[in-house]
Amino acid sequence: MPSPFSVLMTISALCIAPITFAQQYYNVHLEVLGYSKKSKRFYVLRSPVHSQSTAVLYYYDLKRAEYYFSKSDNSIAQADDPAVFEQQLTALKKELEPLIPVDTKKIKLNILQQDETKRESDFPTLYSTQFVLNTEKFQTQPQYLVHYTPDIRLQQAYVLPKRKGILATFSSLTYPFDEGFQREESVILLPALSK
User: Is the overall model pTM greater than 0.90, yes or no?
Assistant: First the structure.
């Protein structure tokens, strides 16, 4: 006779499975929207992760000492009413100034450590990577990433107002479902300390 725990796990699996397989996953892209002189913030829009999620608006606040951390902007309606979200997003874009792009070839991606974990045949190899991005004048803090191929690709880069740093984005295979899905993420390169 099955234990109460195994029965509970079976019921949970049956309940969760239809929801999981109903989701359609997407490649996640970032749109760098621009800088607001009024709020001293620059905004990034993340596309939906899957069919049951929504776009998310992030900002970096240059008024804060630790401006290299992003925050989700909850002041703009998102999941509850997509039409209102689009309306407010359009209004926000009108007050933003574009950031100056940087050639990503000028940014170096330095792998500090990369560990490979081989799992059972039904699961892809897992990579854990520590890396930094840097130019002659700017550098990120060490970044930690878990992904499913060894590749990390630079996608976009922009100079921050008053040359306080560089906003860069990179992508990696972080969703192993089906053929795999890329996720783009952002990071700030800060002025490098003089040696």
Answer: no
What is the pLDDT at residue 9? Answer: 31
Q: How many domains does the chain have?
A: 1
Tally the C-alpha atoms within 13 A of residue 79's C-alpha that lie toward its C-beta.
7
- Closest listed residue to residue 67, CA positions, set 94, 35, 93, 28: 35
| pLDDT at residue 23, as a whole number | 60
Residue 135 has a pLDDT of 96
∠25-166-194 over CA atoms, to 5°? Answer: 135
Q: HSE of 127 in the Cβ direction (CA atoms, 13 Å)? A: 18
Range of the domain at 36: 4-191
Residue with tokens 């079976």: 10
Residue 16 in 3-state DSSP?
helix
Q: Which residue has the higher pLDDT, 92 or 51?
A: 92
Q: Are 168 and 141 in contact (CB under 8 A)?
A: no
